[in-house]
Amino acid sequence: MNGRRQEAIWIEAALLATPGGHPFYEKLNGLLDERKFDGFAEETCRRFYLKTSRPGLAPAVYFRLLLVGYFEGIDSERGIAWRAADSLALRSFLGYGLSDATPDHSTISRTRRLIDVETHRTVFGWVLNVLGEEGLLKGNTVAIDGTTLEANAALRSIVRRDTGEA
Predict the structure, then answer these.
(1) DSSP string, 109-165
(2) What distance in Å separates the CA atoms of residue 105 and residue 80, rounded to the nearest whole number?
(3) Residue 110: predicted pLDDT
(4) CA 94 from chain center: how many Å?
(5) What is the pairing mode between strands 159-160 and 149-150?
């Protein structure tokens, strides 16, 4: 025997060190809580959950997961799910304890398909409005262009499908 003491096999979760959350996510959660985001998201998405007995993933948690994906530069549901499970700060932001299972990528995907694009736009518009009112946004305009264009080798021949304009 080398004289070293064997490490404990089991440690009570309450005895583990609990690091502080990420300052950005703590501030964001404070603002979302102050403005009652969870209730807003739940009410906005209520019609999508009428067909099921209960939501598999609470709307507020789902939208927080998408915000994590945006802020962390993660463009896949699998990546968002992994990051949420891996980070203590994100678990706190999402409302999950150390021993709680975080949402699987398939749950995130199912929820995304359940909620329509307009509702996503409404919820994210609400969040942007709150951040703007708090002075946390820089810039003047937020826009998404989903125009479909017919491509050709010559740029001069690009034509909008909807209006026919060059």
Answers:
(1) HHHHHHS-HHHHHHHHHHHHHHHHHTT---SS--------EE--SSGGG-EETTT--
(2) 7
(3) 92
(4) 9
(5) antiparallel
Give, as one character, the DSSP assignment of residue 100. S
Rounded to whole angstroms, the Cα distance separating 20 from 89 reads: 7
Residues of the chain scoring pLDDT < 50: 152
Distance CA 93, CA 27 (A): 10
Q: Are 93 and 22 in contact (CB under 8 A)?
A: yes
C-alpha distance across the termini of the chain, in Å? 81
Q: Which amino acid is at 60?
A: A
pLDDT for residue 163: 75
- The whole-angstrom separation of Cα 29 and Cα 35 is 10
DSSP state for residue 48 in the 8-state scheme = G
Q: Which two tokens stand for residue 74?
A: 């993660």
